[in-house]
Amino acid sequence: MTIATVLRPTSLAEAAAALADTTGSVRIVGAGTAADWAGSPEPADVVLSTTALTGVIVHNPGDMTVAVRAGTPLRELNAMLAVHGQRVASDAARVDLGATIGGLVATADAGPSALVYGCLRDLVIGATVMLADGTVARTGGHVIKNVAGYDLAKLVHGCHGTLALIAELVLRLHPLPGATSTVRLIGSLADSAEAARAVLASPLEPVACEWSNGALLVRLAGTPGALPARLATLLGSAARRLDAAEQEAAWAAHAALVAGPGSRPHVDRAVLRVGARPSRLPAVIAELTSELGATGVTAGLATGVGTVTLPADPDVVARAHQLVYGVGGSSMLRSRPPGCVAPAWGPAPSAIEVLRAVQAELDPRGRLGAGRFHPWM
Fold first, then answer.
1. Residues 203 and 230 reside in one and the same domain
2. What domain range includes position 142?
3. Could you write out the DSSP letters of every residue in 151-196?
4. Listed residues 209, 225, 258: the one ending a domain
């Protein structure tokens, strides 16, 4: 068995050279918090690590933008930005595990606050990427209303280490909220879906609306003076405002269900990400639970994104993909036991030929991330 060459570039020039001066297949890795998401990577000749591509390039507090190298952990970046009362408004569960900015973009990961702020795809306003032959390509810039050129940043969002190496990113920032508070409503998923619809139809503007562990969690953010009045309209006989410690624990428990490798080892279980219309998500999760024994459920009742834990059986996982596909949704295998051969993806999307054509254009030799989109590409 050939041992892969491991390269850790520390600059843009070194990263470009790492691709231009090598041959064979390449696997791009970051902090490793999503190493077993999507398809299993095939053995590679070169492993290109972004862990040394770190640090802030330039921060413009007045413009609320920051340019950063892709190997920078988001939690470290946000700690630096907090001094200026700013943040990258992403609360993906893997952030506390050390997930990097580039890794979060490459895996299209997001958290509950995507309801308001979107995922990182919506926060990236510029990017520098390297194609498989070392060609450097830049898109966007430091201005939020920048429309020049092709938006390569959106193209590589969710590419899982295929198409290109994400080297640098320019992100729009948001102010830190003055105060946050969470209300918990105990109830079934079906009842919580009704409650969530009522909240979303109100003028309360929640920043997160998630069901997990048998309860609906609604998070509000605002100024310390205005937040109590908004909370009062949420509090009914069955709802309860969580204190600071309870709020932290509730969202930590939610994150533990979706975080990925390292959060909780499974011997015979696998985690499936499910995406569907918010109106259809509760029904498909109920079907996954009743027919396939899904546990560890989270459901974004406003975003339409959830996770379920299933037996790591290829037939069970394949059936789960079919159920999600049947309601017009999408699904992807996340963390699973070593050696699990369950399918990572469901039926190919209708645009699969477009995806293959894009890959053929950007990476004609198929050097990057082989296996991640098996059997689609």
1. yes
2. 1-176+347-377
3. -HHHHHTT-TT-S-EEEEEEEE-EEPPSEEEEEEEE--HHHHHHHH
4. 258
- Picking from 215, 232, 258, the residue at the C-terminal end of a domain is 258
- Average per-residue pLDDT for the chain: 91
Question: Are the CB atoms for 230 and 217 separated by under 8 Å?
Answer: no
Segment 255-307, tens digit of pLDDT: 998 874 444 445 688 999 999 999 999 999 999 999 999 999 999 999 999 99
Counting the structural domains of the chain, the total is 3
CA distance 180 to 91: 14
Within 8 A by CB and 6+ apart from 293, the residues are 310, 311, 316
Closest Cα partner for 18 from 30, 6, 29, 36?
6
**Within a domain: residue 324?**
yes
DSSP H or E stretch at residue 248: helix 244-258
Question: Are residues 231 and 377 both part of a single domain?
Answer: no
Residue 339 inside a domain? The answer is no
Q: Contact 16/132 with Cβ under 8 angstroms?
A: no
Q: Please, which residues have CB within 8 angstroms of residue 45's CB and are 6 or more apart in sequence?
A: 2, 4, 5, 22, 23, 24, 25, 26
Q: Which structure tokens are listed for 18? A: 């790492």
Q: Which long-range contacts (CB under 8 A, 24 or more apart) does 351-357 make?
A: 352/376, 352/377
The CA–CA distances, whole Å, from 1 to 4, 49, 166, 372 equal 9, 21, 29, 21
Tokens coding 279: 């109106």
